[in-house]
Amino acid sequence: MTDFAATKAMFHLPEGVIYLDGNSLGPLPRAATAHVGQAMEAEWGQRLITGWNKAGWMALPTQLGDRIGALIGAEPGHVVVGDTLSIKVYQALASALQLNPDRRVVLTDNGNFPSDIYMAEGLLQMLDKGYELKVVAPEAVAGHIDDTVAVLMLTEVDYRTGRWHDMKALTALAHDAGALAVWDLAHTAGAVPVDLSGAGADFAVGCTYKYLNGGPGAPAFIYVAPRHAGRAVPALSGWLGHEAPFAFDLDYRPGAGIERMRVGTPPVLQIRALETAMDIWDMADINDVRARSVELCDLFIAEVEAACPDLTLNTPRDAARRGSQVSFRHSEGYAVMQALIARGVIGDFRAPDNLRFGFTPLYIDEADVHGAVRILADILTNRLWDRPEYKVRAAVT
Amino acid sequence: MTDFAATKAMFHLPEGVIYLDGNSLGPLPRAATAHVGQAMEAEWGQRLITGWNKAGWMALPTQLGDRIGALIGAEPGHVVVGDTLSIKVYQALASALQLNPDRRVVLTDNGNFPSDIYMAEGLLQMLDKGYELKVVAPEAVAGHIDDTVAVLMLTEVDYRTGRWHDMKALTALAHDAGALAVWDLAHTAGAVPVDLSGAGADFAVGCTYKYLNGGPGAPAFIYVAPRHAGRAVPALSGWLGHEAPFAFDLDYRPGAGIERMRVGTPPVLQIRALETAMDIWDMADINDVRARSVELCDLFIAEVEAACPDLTLNTPRDAARRGSQVSFRHSEGYAVMQALIARGVIGDFRAPDNLRFGFTPLYIDEADVHGAVRILADILTNRLWDRPEYKVRAAVT
Questions:
Q1: Whole-angstrom Cα distance, residue A331 to residue A310?
Q2: I need a surface site. Which of A68, A359, A383, B238 has the fewest CB within 10 A?
Q3: Percent of chain B residues past pLDDT 70, beyond the cut
Q4: What are the tens digits of pLDDT across the range B177-207?
Q5: Long-range contacts formed by A300-305: CB under 8 A, 24+ apart
Q6: Which residues of B, range 21-80, sit inside 8 Å of A by Cβ?
Q7: Where in chain B is the domain with CATH 3.90.1150.10?
Q8: Looking at the complex, does the CB of residue B14 fall below 8 Å from at least one CB of chain A?
Q9: Where does residue B231 rank: exposed (0-12), middle (13-18), buried (19+ CB within 10 A)?
Q10: What is the pLDDT of residues B224-283, one digit of tens each?
Q11: The CATH number of domain A4-28+285-390 is 3.20.20.100
Q12: Selected catalytic residue, list B4, B19, B90, B113
């Protein structure tokens, strides 16, 4: 059984803050600063260029890939870390399209994260081969999987509502129709159990700064199913994905399996920070995390609905259909969130009217839920959000 | 006049090491660890998600872009930092091709860094429109610029030999022929004066871990000429390049100018390290750096040629035709470099037979040159490289 008091003690959590936004950026692992500092002083500082071999930097992307892979049901040796999530979405989609060259539809839903859709738009427009990006409602996805679909590209959990797609069922439908499935795990890796292998996913991508707690700008990851890994075209064919990067040949030859999905120089400092986050995951069982997450989300929904009649739940009530976040709608949602943040309860606002709260059992417990609801109820009951300064939109919301 | 003793004092340089590989990975700025630590503790740790606004993270890519832009003759507001160099090569080339849609040749040379060529191969293969990647000898480039060329894509200074292309002349030839020019500044930014604006470059890209000293995995940068910035298609169209990223619209609308070349979440920790490197550049004048670099390279060539008859210069003798590195050929170059590293003289080996030495006046001086040549001569004269352990190739060479 995971000791959640022990995992909570591994994070720096500021005084007076209840942090319900770990689904956007996880908190600082206490060990991270010293570990990154050590990498800077003892590795970069002392070893200089030889750090690539002697400090093992070159192997970090696959090492970390395997540690993340263990959390998402990936076969060992089939996940690699690097770049950003948008880049990995592009790479996965481009690769999947090349594996299914005779079809012209990419199917996604309007609950997919916009960047995934933008990257697909950019790719399909550039390919200029009559591709169609079909964007349907989440509940309409299954009905649109047919023999025109080349690739089904979905984010498993909706960033706004927490609605959770059934990866296994939709992947099976895609395969039955002759399509490939690309899954974005941004809101599932570290949030809920994921079984890529069992679900038969073809490609998957995700980020490490949300539930995995890798820090601002932490790298993304990509998974390629073993059956594709040896023939997938990486599309972004960089030197570190080459079979022999340091031969400096002029012709690209893809590396073995997942190695080919590497592109350029890995972000060593970010990866060292991510390592300390993964050390905390070594203390946890994702099934325990899920069970606690369901308890915390259920508790939050019940308490908010009892205390805040102005809010409307915008997340599936059935835990089996949602990830690890809860959203409520409010017409002045932006101002309400600013008022909450001013009181130390940090969640997210997501346009047009969502107050979004992430529940992350590694460091959030019942006392946090009670405290957050008490402050939320006070703000709503006493209209404390109704101040001009809470209505000025910041650049990043 | 730049005070090079003062700039040298800003770096951590290990005892007993003469570091002639700053053209591959610059050394640690002394201020970097504390600055990154501060970003981790006070920004990530204390501000959590609000760091994107309150710690100014979101603006870092353009802020750093402008600081780098000042070193390479870019107009303010036309450089942005992010991703890796390979990714930015892809983005620049894809964008340039879309600006010149009726031609089918991408011209480059075999002294271009292989990853640039690989990225182009991957892109052109995916576009599947009959593109040809024409790879010629560096000295043959000018003769191959004709009205079939869509994009001339070159690295300004050859990573093996230090041969320096004439950016202004070749860009003018390209423009006269109706082609666009994409320049990779990997071995010029921070090494020699670059005048992107004066040369009329259309796109430029570069990395920050070499002469700029940003650290292992530091982000890349991209420049788009003002005349293209408002119509360039970013190809990798991620949410942070969107006109309004936090509106979460489903349709991509490119941001203003260089902003559209942003893709995903910037690597905040790497950028904080890079800031301390750019602080040192604030103490230097690139023209002073160039003058010193020429002196140091000339001195090194003269001393090596006097003391090491086994070595053959593989760099233009004329300073005006080379960057800030010197290469010598030796049939056992790999083993010689291992022997040098074992004695504390760190350079690079580049296949098939190049010993490569970078000269970086911010922290390398005449005493370093004398010391390095003394050890090199000893190793060659006494065949100290002729040991089995020096001939075992490491993963990264």
A1: 9
A2: A383
A3: 99
A4: 999 999 999 999 999 999 999 999 999 999 9
A5: A300/A326, A300/A357, A300/A359, A300/A369, A300/A372, A300/A373, A301/A326, A303/A369, A303/A370, A303/A373, A304/A328, A304/A373, A304/A376, A304/A377
A6: 21, 24-25, 27-28, 32-33, 36-37, 40-41, 43-46, 48-53, 57-59
A7: 4-30+285-390
A8: yes
A9: exposed
A10: 999 999 999 999 999 999 999 988 999 999 999 999 999 999 999 999 999 999 999 999
A11: no
A12: B113
In the predicted model, what is the mean pLDDT of residues B72-88?
Answer: 98
Helix (H), strand (E) at residue A356? strand A354-358
CA distance A54 to chain B (A): 10
Q: Kindly identify which residue of chain A lies nearest to residue B101, measuring between CA atoms.
A: A126
For chain B, the average pLDDT equals 97
Closest-CA residue to B217 (of A212, A43, A94, A26): A43
DSSP labels for B283-301?
T--HHHHHHHHHHHHHHHH
Cβ atoms of A212 and A26 within 8 Å: the answer is: yes
CB-based contact B85 A264, cutoff 8 Å: yes
Active-site annotation holds for A329? no
Confidence of residue B392 (pLDDT cuts 50, 70, 90): confident
Low-confidence ranges of chain A (pLDDT < 50): none
The pTM of the full predicted model, rounded to 2 decimals, is 0.97
Whether B210 is a known active-site residue: answer yes
What value does the mean pLDDT take over residues B22-29? 97
- φ/ψ (deg, to 5) at B54: -75, -30
DSSP state of A39: I
CATH class of B32-281: alpha beta
Of the partner residues B19, B28, B236, the one whose CB lies closest to the CB of residue A122: B236
Query: For B350-373, what is each residue's pLDDT tens digit?
Result: 888 999 999 999 999 999 999 999
Chain B window 361-390: which residues touch A at a Cβ cutoff of 8 Å?
Answer: none
Q: Which of A28, A48, A252 sits opposite B346 (nearest CB)?
A: A48
The continuous run of DSSP H or E covering B220 comes out as strand B220-224
Residue numbers in A near B219 (CB within 8 A): 267
CATH superfamily assigned to domain B4-30+285-390 = Aspartate Aminotransferase, domain 1 (3.90.1150.10)
Domain with CATH 3.40.640.10 in chain B: 32-281
Q: How confident is the model at residue B396 (pLDDT cuts 50, 70, 90)?
A: low
Q: Is B8 a catalytic residue?
A: no
Q: Is B184 a catalytic residue?
A: yes
Window 105-124 of A, Cβ < 8 Å to B: 110, 113-115, 117-119, 121-122
How far apart are the C-alpha atoms of B105 and B152, rounded to whole Å? 9
A380-388: list long-range contacts, CB under 8 Å, 24+ apart. A380/A308, A380/A310, A380/A311, A380/A330, A380/A336, A381/A308, A384/A339, A385/A332, A385/A335, A385/A336, A385/A338, A385/A339, A386/A332, A386/A335, A387/A335, A387/A339
- The one catalytic residue in A21, A83, A116, A184 is A184
At A152 the pLDDT is 98
Task: Give the nearest partner residue to A396 out of B58, B215, B341, using CB atoms.
Answer: B58
Distance from CA of A220 to the nearest CA of B (A): 10
What residues have CB less than 8 Å from A248, skipping those under 6 apart? B114, B160, B350, B351
Task: Please write down the long-range contacts of B28-34, taking CB distance under 8 Å and 24 or more positions apart.
Answer: B28/A40, B28/A41, B28/A44, B28/A45, B28/B215, B29/B213, B29/B273, B29/B276, B29/B277, B29/B279, B29/B280, B31/B276, B31/B279, B32/A40, B32/B215, B32/B273, B32/B276, B32/B277, B33/A37, B33/A40, B33/A41, B33/A45
| Yes or no, beta carbons of A265 and B84 under 8 Å apart | yes
pLDDT value of residue B395 = 62
